Amino acid sequence: MKLVDMGITEFVDVLGSDAPAPGGGSASALAASVGSALTMMVAQLTIGKKKYAEYDELMKQVLKEATEVNQALLEAIDKDTEAFNQVSAVFSMPKETEEEKAARKEAMQKALKLAAEAPYDIMVLASKAITITGKAVGKSNVNAASDLGVAALNLKSGTQGAWLNVLINLSGIKDEAFVAKYKQDGEALLQASCDRADEIYQAILEIV
After folding, report:
1. Are 36 and 107 spatial neighbours (Cβ–Cβ below 8 Å)?
2. How much helix, strand and coil, in percent to the nearest 5, is found in the chain?
3. pLDDT at 187 over 90
4. Could you give the CA distance from residue 193 to residue 127 in angstroms, rounded to a whole number?
């Protein structure tokens, strides 16, 4: 069964078990998906309201964009765990001969790169969701302003959590160019995303 098909209690039980996956990466994708879902909710609570008629088309676009990102984030919950499982699978590979050791090492490096890319993709998606959420600030149903703030907080948490999972996998990768690129791009993405999420949160504090 896919993680996204589990009930909340079942997912939390698996998350809290001694199974190494799902772990922080999938949890980060879930947090971000909750954030984007809240943005979707706020948009739907604004669309069609006379008080916000001037923002109707904007909020329809926000809903469309947030829905698309949300679907991708839900898919990322399983993708992250699948990537980690590939790393785990390498440990069962034989390592008796030099050839087997070399094959095992190569497989591990490939698996670690996938395991670093999966949470990085979560960061990219969360960043998009933060930008989308920002479009609704001050232009959406004021009664749901707090929900927009919670959306920003969840998206920031998802971004930061995903970054930790990028870093821990990069630590085992020998390809220096690969590591340097992801660290540089990831740090820039993290800073920009967190700054924007903080701006949204502060703006919401002035509304509620």
Report:
1. no
2. 80, 0, 20
3. yes
4. 5
